[in-house]
UniProtKB/TrEMBL annotation:
Gene3D superfamilies: Galactose-binding domain-like (2.60.120.260). It comes from Phanerochaete carnosa (strain HHB-10118-sp). Residues 146-180 are annotated as: Disordered. This is Uncharacterized protein.
Length: 267
């Protein structure tokens, strides 16, 4: 069975290059009917903005963003295969949450790389907006572990320690001086995937809330640390939707240990 993994525009798994060309924007829909609260936007007038997303998975791929009259030409590279799009045309219907790219055919189980490029050169159509990226993976079984699960251990502990604290609902928050905080509502979804050697493996995805105070962090699986991950959240939101903080797959069957470490450079 395939299941969806959604990385919003604010997810640390999404990389913006160069970062200076992208900004998080609050939707300015005057009617208040917008289904998108915030999104990332770039203008080709300032340069060629790119988005990168890498994951292990199979199945389909979607990129969602705004399809407005200001949308210019853009390009999608999936595992090196290029598809070019003309941007907004007179026959298009404007939408703040449209499908900018969809691969209906099923990808083989492997590590895949997705790149979205703003190639617009027209001053009247320079904009590219990103809402979210949706990919799929094979999941015969999915287990959800919340932050209150006894299998979750929170540290450091002890009198005066600057460790994790419960916010009174379902979240654990890590506060450290000068480091901001990482809201880590730990929803560790252990899912099985089919690997290239036809054996079965496991994967894990971590979800939490993000805001402008969210710090950098690292995810360590079985002793192997990810690169330092940086949230792309710059605005305070009225909602506290769960965001994809980290995902990995292709693990061998068996028990695994996940450590989420706040502000790793200071540890």
């Amino acid at each position: 069975m395939l299941f969806n993994i959604t990385a919003s525009h604010a997810s640390p798994m999404v990389t913006y290059v160069p970062g200076a060309l992208w900004r998080e924007t609050m939707d300015g829909n005057a009617t208040g009917q917008s289904s998108v609260e915030t999104y990332h936007s770039t203008s080709a007038i300032q340069g060629e903005g790119r988005v990168f997303f890498t994951w292990f998975g199979s199945g389909s791929v979607w990129i969602f963003g705004a399809r407005r009259p200001s949308l210019g030409p853009y390009q999608v590279l999936l595992d090196g295969q290029s598809t070019k799009f003309p941007g907004f045309r007179d026959s298009d219907t404007a939408s703040d949450d449209a499908i900018l790219f969809h691969l209906p055919s099923s990808l083989p189980p492997a590590v895949h790389r997705l790149e979205l490029i703003n190639t617009g050169g027209d001053a009247l159509q320079p904009i590219l907006d990103l809402n979210r990226i949706v990919v799929q993976n094979e999941a015969p079984n999915v287990t959800e572990i919340t932050s209150r699960d006894p299998r979750c251990k929170w540290g450091p502990t002890g009198t005066g320690s600057k460790g994790w604290s419960n916010n009174g609902t379902t979240r654990q928050k890590h506060n450290k001086p000068c480091d901001g905080d990482l809201d880590a509502q730990l929803h560790a979804r252990a899912s099985k995937t089919h690997l290239l050697n036809a054996s079965q493996g496991s994967g894990i995805s971590v979800y939490g809330t993000l805001n402008p105070n969210s710090s950098s962090f690292a995810a360590i699986v079985d002793g192997w640390a990810s690169n330092t991950l940086y949230p792309n959240s710059q605005l305070w939101l009225a909602s506290e939707d769960e965001e994809l903080l980290y995902t990995t797959s292709g693990l061998l069957p068996g028990n695994h240990t996940l450590v989420v470490r706040n502000s790793p450079p200071s540890w």
